[in-house]
Amino acid sequence: MDRFTLLRSGPFRFGFVATLGVLLALLLGAAVVSLSTALTLIFVAFFVCLGLYPTVRRLEGRGFSRGGAVATVVGCFLVVVGLLLWLVLPIVVAQLGQLFTYLPSGYDEISEQQWFIDLDAGLGGALTPGLEWARTTASDPNTWLAVGGGALKVGTGIINQVFGVIFVLALTIYFVAGLEAMKSSFYALVPASRRAGVIDLAETIMESVGKYLGGMVILAAINAVFTFLLLTVAGVSFAPVLAALAFPNTLIPLIGSVINLVIITTVSLFAGPETALFVGLAMLVYVQIESYVLTPRIVGKAISIPASLVLIGAMVGATLLGLLGALIACPVSASVLLIVKKVVMPRQEAA
């Protein structure tokens, strides 16, 4: 009886409950880590759905039935993805193979260019060892296997990526088709006294995020096409690979286009300093046009947050989820700010 009395007393009961809480938190944390890949794919599919859904509503406004609008959007989405896989992917894969073959001779070409010889002489030959190290490292297959974690891990990663893409495509279709039913079920769980406010907040967030994501995809596609045309005209090798790389880079808010500018200008040095200067200036002009002309017209004011928060969100997102985290940093930050503005601040004012 004394033992049970001790367990029912304040300090012992608190310690027991606290220990159970810590164990439960550890179990939940381990479960989240184990499901991180699946949760990330679900998150990606939901964001793709939000990007497609404004088009569904636009078609409904033009007289389409809901089923017809969903079928049209899903069909066009699958056609675009299929064309990318059929036309773009083989070219990019072939170009990547050529890139790995070209890198050793490409470094040799740089060492023979006059600008490199003059700069190396001015630095007392300091550039030659670094270039030789880069050439040796790039030509060693073990380097790329080490980067990928080994041959087995590379193969497993490719297979996982293929299944991940298939899963995201299938889940996106289900999300687009059943989003209204999902929203209705979620709203029904909210108490009636708060339901109107929750519906208004949720619809505002989803509409803003959808418009933003759709606009950013269009901007990224325009940037990728311009990158391909610019590099092709300038005679820079591997334009398809760099254009494919420009698409996800441009999706990163604020700094994505600048990252793409630095990458393609650096690669253009393989063709000579004049080519790199031309590519850099042309891309710089395009970045200005994109920032001050295209972005306001295409994205508009779907999401309006301070630039400092965008950069902080992109850094935190990239640390947590890599490239995906950087891509979704802006809409997530805007959603949090909207919740603070419409929920937290009014409560503070009323307190």
From TrEMBL:
Transmembrane segments: 12-32, 38-56, 68-93, 158-177, 216-239, 251-270, 277-295, 307-340
Alphabetical keyword list: Cell membrane, Membrane, Transmembrane, Transmembrane helix, Transport
UniProt key word Transmembrane: yes
Taxonomic superkingdom: Bacteria
Listed InterPro entries: AI-2E-like (IPR002549)
Signal sequence residues: none
Primary localisation category: membrane
GO biological process, any: transmembrane transport
UniProt topology in membrane: Multi-pass membrane protein
GO CC annotation, single: plasma membrane
Record keyword Manganese present: no
Pfam families (alphabetical): AI-2E_transport (PF01594)
Subcellular locations according to the entry: Cell membrane
PANTHER family assigned to the protein according to its UniProt record, in alphabetical order: PERMEASE PERM-RELATED, TRANSMEMBRANE PROTEIN
Similarity remark: Belongs to the autoinducer-2 exporter (AI-2E) (TC 2.A.86) family.
Protein name per Swiss-Prot or TrEMBL: Putative PurR-regulated permease PerM
Species name: Microbacterium proteolyticum
Lineage of producing organism: Bacteria, Bacillati, Actinomycetota, Actinomycetes, Micrococcales
